């Protein structure tokens, strides 16, 4: 594990009350340790691609090569030991199953901040990652926040049954604990959808840079002519 934080620790337990449409449930947010890496990678493979604005806009959900390479990609940041997962605690049918995962890593000033890449990525993966790199390059987190490192978000996904229940907000707010555990005061990530951008703003993230997908080109070619949401944002928050 990259930061020697220690054995798996529970960050928070949350209870969601019953509503007119949903039953009550409880879940815990915890660090992803080595024993959970494979499960977390498979979870992200199943749910993140299908719900990501960039991937959907590129029509890459059925790209088997991308899915295989994504799986390899998730394992790299997950091995740093600071990612988070939410586990259902009172599901009689499938106790303690993962219902949300947030893959996190650390970017350091002495290393050029780039989007982590899988080995031999497909053309689609390369273009999606280049899109994020071009956006990140518009604003330097290190100089803007006078920091030597920041916690970065590689992606977050929630199982469909548990979406719109506030889990994403709890997971995003839990990044403050990761920043304190690693003694890194700043967190930053690319937020690609309308809902995630609104959530990030609600949780105290500020927009550092934007990129309009409808006009964005690589080698003169429009990559996302009809995106689900036209603007992706590079956003960050300082916790201490």
From TrEMBL:
Gene3D superfamilies: 3.40.630.30. This is N-acetyltransferase domain-containing protein. GO terms for molecular function: N-acetyltransferase activity. It holds the Pfam family Acetyltransf_1. Residues 82-236 form the N-acetyltransferase domain. It comes from the Eukaryota. InterPro entries: Acyl_CoA_acyltransferase (IPR016181), GNAT_dom (IPR000182).
């Amino acid at each position: 594990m990259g930061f020697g934080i220690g054995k798996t620790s529970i960050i928070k337990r949350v209870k969601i009350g019953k509503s007119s449409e949903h039953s009550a449930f409880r879940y815990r947010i915890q660090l992803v340790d080595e024993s959970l890496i494979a499960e977390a990678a498979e979870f992200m493979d199943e749910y993140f691609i299908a719900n990501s604005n960039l991937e959907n806009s590129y029509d890459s959900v059925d790209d088997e090569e991308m899915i295989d390479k994504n799986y390899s990609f998730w394992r790299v940041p997950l091995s740093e030991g600071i990612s988070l997962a939410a586990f259902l605690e009172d599901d009689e049918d499938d106790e303690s199953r993962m219902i949300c995962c947030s893959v996190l890593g650390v970017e350091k000033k002495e290393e050029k901040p780039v989007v982590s890449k899988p080995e031999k990525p497909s053309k689609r993966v390369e273009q999606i990652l280049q899109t994020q790199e071009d956006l990140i390059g518009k604003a330097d987190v290190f100089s803007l926040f006078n920091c030597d490192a920041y916690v970065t978000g590689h992606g977050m996904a929630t199982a469909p049954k548990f979406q719109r229940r506030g889990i994403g907000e709890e997971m995003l707010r839990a990044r403050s604990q990761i920043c304190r555990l690693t003694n890194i005061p700043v967190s930053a990530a690319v937020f690609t959808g309308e809902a995630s951008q609104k959530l990030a703003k609600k949780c105290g993230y500020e927009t550092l840079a934007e990129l309009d997908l409808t006009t964005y080109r690589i080698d003169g070619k429009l990559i996302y002519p009809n995106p689900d949401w036209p603007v992706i944002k590079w956003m960050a928050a300082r916790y201490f």
